[in-house]
Amino acid sequence: MSRLTVVILTLNEAHHIEACLRSLQGLQAERLVLDSGSSDATVALAQALGAQVQVYADWQGFGVQRSRALAHVAESDWVFFLDADERMTPALAQEIAAVVARDEEAVWEVVWEQMAYGQSLARMGGSGGVARLFPRRLLERFDGAVHEGAVLRRSAPTRRLCARLPHYSRETIYASLQKLAQYVQLGALKRQQAGKRGGLLRGMGSGLANFLRLYLFQRGFLCGRAGFLYSFFVGLECFFRYVALEVDRAELNAPVRR
Question: Which residues contact 181 (CB under 8 A, 6 or more apart)?
Answer without folding.
Answer: none
